[in-house]
Amino acid sequence: MTMNDRVDEYLWDPAAPPDRQVLAIESSLSAARFDPERRPLQLPERRAGSAAGWPLWRSLAAAAALILVAGAGYAAWRWSWPDNRPWFVAAAPAGSPARLPVGSRLDLSAGETALVDVARIGTMRVSGGSSVTLRATASNRHLLSLDRGSVHVRVWAPPFSVVFQTPAGEVRDVGCEFQLEVDGSEVRVRVVSGWVQLDNLQGEILVPAGASSEMITSRRPGVPVFDDAVPGFREAVRRLEAAPGDAAGVVDRVAALARPRDVLTLLHLVNRGVPARHRLVEQAAELWPPPNLAIINRVLQGDDRALWEWRDSLPLPPVKGWWRNWRDALPLWLLDGNAQ
Q1: Domain parsing of the chain, residue ranges
Q2: Is the CA virtual torsion 15, 19, 20, 26 positive or negative?
Q3: Which residue, of 175, 270, 274, 334, has the fewest CB within 10 Å?
Q4: Could you report the per-residue pLDDT of 68-96, keeping only the tens digit for each?
């Protein structure tokens, strides 16, 4: 082979006598013989924004489709879990089992902690002195009971994937991170991200990120109160819930201590028909006016639909938004250690 890729030798023995037919063919084709100096090979120029003739937008669309398919496959795998398969205990005191089978209970002494994988959708940190039991587990529903102590749960999954049974009622995740504490017959929940639903035979309540609630069996779960409320506001709200008949002065104190952020609490109290509810409605309207003034009169007349229209105008986090709560999908070792 030469530098111009011409073949200068025959494919047969050149020492053999020339073949007349081969010579005739060579003579007739000689005019078309490749000569890079006379007829240089012209290759088509590659256009900007294309790859091997494939437009850039098609390449980007194909990449995006591949990412979507891969993401959907990963989510389906992460949310799936074989029925009754044990959970893995990532960290526990010496001598503790490495798995938490269905029907088994994890009891910790004071000062001990354990970290349990919630199927593939999150983690549960169990504090010392706690007793937690895995009741059932499947691909889209995991049921536990917490008899005493506290757990810190982080899950990233469709709403109501994880449910805790407690002495006071049930606690259901709505795609979130939360702290759950059981002290005798009292239950307390603090929501870090997303929402949590509390319900018992008396009623139910949705608690947003940044707020807390309490629950006992004898009355409806407590209305959500934001953790950064001014001192005295939470105590006044809980007192009003516990003894609405002795509300003299308590309603005024709740109204006086409320901020615009606390209008959610005020509207929940109004919905429960506490005494002097008109005072709470007036304060709520001053702190966060409803979408239209007619809503105020409708609320005072007992129109629940108007009250929820007002509530929906508040700057609350979405009930479920995985893209907003992406942090809950990360493993603990990638976080800053705030989860307890």
Answers
A1: 229-316
A2: negative
A3: 334
A4: 665 555 555 566 788 999 999 999 888 88
